[in-house]
Amino acid sequence: MDGSAILARLRARLGARVLETHEHHGDHTAVVTREGIVDALGYCRDDALLRFDMLMDLTAVDYLKFPGREDGPRFDVVYHLYSVPHNHRVRLKVRVEQDAASVPTATGLWPIANWFEREVWDMFGIRFEGHPDLRRLLMYEEFVGHPLRKDYPIERRQPLIGPNV
Amino acid sequence: MPERTARELFLGEGPGAGSGSQNLYVNLGPAHPAMHGIIRIFAELDGEVVVKTDVEIGYLHRAFEKECEIGPYNNAIPFTDRLNYVSPLINNFAYASAVEKLLDIEITERCKYIRVVMSEISRVCDHLTCVGASAMELGAFTVFLYMIKAREFLWELVEDVTGARLTISYGRVGGVKADLPEGFGIKVRKAFAEVRQVLSEVHTLITGNRIFMDRMVGVGALSAEESIAWGITGPLLRAAGVPFDLRRVQPYWAYDRVEFEVPLGKNGDNFDRYLVRMAEMEQSMRMVDQALERMPGGAINVDFEGREIPVDAYVDRGKQGKTEGLLLLPITLSPNLQGQGRAAQERVNVADKRVVLPPKETTYGSIEGLMNHFMLVMDGYGIRPPAGEAYFAAEGANGELGFYVVSDGGDRPYRVRCRPPCLPPVAALPRMIEGQMVADIVPTFGSVNMIGGELDR
Questions:
Q1: What's the half-sphere exposure (Cβ side, CA atoms, 13 Å) at B266?
Q2: How far apart are CA B275 and CA B264, in angstroms?
Q3: Could you tell me the end-to-end alpha-carbon distance of chain A, in angstroms, rounded to an integer?
Q4: Which of B66, B101, B419 sits opposite A148 (nearest CB)?
Q5: What is the pLDDT of residues B179-197, one digit of tens each?
Q6: How far is residue B294's CA from residue B448's CA, in Å, rounded to a whole number?
Q7: B8-23 residues labelled b (16+ CB within 10 A) or e (exposed)
């Protein structure tokens, strides 16, 4: 299935849960509402024509300093899906406000979402509702803040931890 | 008090054993010789059986993604070297291709072949390291030495092309740093003969070896469905029998113009992973042979009436106002810049002033060239893709290596996300080792081929 047909199918089946769709550089993207994301992902995984059986990547982007999006929803949570049987890809996105930075978890659909979501929580401070074990993945527990946020300065020092401090 | 038997004491059976769990908690790592970098496996053992494990990563986190946002686009190239430090060339090229996708530019034909050749050489290095190290952990130290010897021959090739063995920084947005050196094909054939010899020796040593098979067959297995659900790609998925290889299903660069097979396993256990990696090395070398044969461009043939004009004379002619044809005069470049002259540059890089540094003759010989050079390296200028986003996936040595680059129209990436190929298998590691013996942790972990640099970024 080519990308525009995938997007058309998503728009037809998910209705109002798809906010917008677009295509850039051959990548096809559908922006989905926060409440509808688990439905959308589940539909993508189980529909016979789509069969996106692999969650290739899950990440986020902080649009705090992006020209034109300073006022809009601050974060995008980005899902890259791939279908092994049909060999096609799609990208789903959820826009998240800074004050309500949480998204329903996808761990019920793919086990790998567990670690990807832990990384997004660690790096961006976006919570995943219903996640079984939302701990930091790359940083240590005592770390303060979320380093990939645009308002986290790269030169910030963290307190030293360990037995000999 | 009656004496307790060993069975009662260690397995918690019998009347004198007390109550409650007698499981033992064991830490493997973070700093452990078999942990290939730094990672902690916290295992709960019931006797010798692994009941439950927790894998802790992040000890090698270097803020790769944050660091990329600080400098211009090409500044991220050296950081990508340090992602997978065993096959850094693939990282270089995949990142460059993601930015090229964002810029909508098409690289030259010769450059595509060079990327294929260098990526496949890297893949062989990576598999040699992985197989050698896992064999060493099972006691086959000879295999490790043989394979590291073979890798050494390949790293000499890499050194010949890039000037470095590991931190190569050879990829560039829009092309590569320099053309292949003269006589590269002959060196490749010599090195490959050595590698093929080593591979056949290793097959003889361990493929049918009773001890090796006992430790590998049926250990750490993951079915095809489960591998897909865990997002596992690369040799581990192919060992489970899924023919997913990006070079075949979504060909990029020149992969659609070389013939190769996608080796598949059946059981998805450690032994199949080993066999898949061994077969992939043969296929990679086959691809390099073909690509070198078909590489367009041919030998270097710049000879301007058999005369080379030194840079100072070049400038003097310009001062005299004799500028016509000046840009076409060949000049002697410093040996450090070998392969970056005009002739080489035109073969390997796109002719796009917005992206690629001008040939050194032009930079040193004309004001326009100098300005072009400065515009690309000055703060606030440089490569400026239009606002947007692009995801490019390449087949890394461990699986799908994806770069997701977001641009805000400025000269720095707004966001660079690396999809590390070895994160999903490490996340699935508890699933692979739970229920197995404690001695199976190390070979399974070896077959995952965790690379700390890309896992923790």
A1: 2
A2: 9
A3: 58
A4: B66
A5: 788 788 888 989 999 999 9
A6: 34
A7: beeebeeeeeeeeeee
* pLDDT tier, B167 (very low <50, low <70, confident <90, very high otherwise): confident
Which ipTM was obtained for this model?
0.89
What's the pLDDT band for A92 if we cut at 50, 70, 90?
A: very high
- Residue environment code for A136-165, b if the CB has 16+ CB neighbours within 10 A, otherwise e: bbbbeeeeeebbbbbebeeeeeeeeeeeee
User: What is the C-alpha separation between B205 and A26, in angstroms, rounded?
Assistant: 48
CA atoms of B117 and B109, how far apart (whole Å): 13
Distinct helix (H) and strand (E) counts, chain B: 20, 8
A133: nearest CA in chain B?
B54
User: Whole-prediction pTM value?
Assistant: 0.82
A67: burial class by Cβ within 10 Å (0-12, 13-18, 19+)? exposed
∠ Cα B119 B73 B159 (to 5°): 35
* pLDDT score at B301: 27
DSSP per residue, B98-166 = HHHHHHT----HHHHHHHHHHHHHHHHHHHHHHHHHHHHHTT-HHHHHHHHHHHHHHHHHHHHHHS-SS
pLDDT, position B424: 92
> Could you write out the DSSP letters of every residue in B33-60?
GGGSSS-EEEEEEETTEEEEEEEE--TT
Tens of pLDDT, residue by residue over B377-386, are 877 777 888 8
Q: Which range has highest mean pLDDT (A154-163, B127-136, B365-374)?
A: B127-136
Instruction: Flag if B417 and A59 touch (Cβ within 8 Å).
Output: yes
Taken as a whole, chain B contains a residue count of: 457
Using CB atoms, pick whichever of B228, B390, B428 lies closest to residue A53.
B228
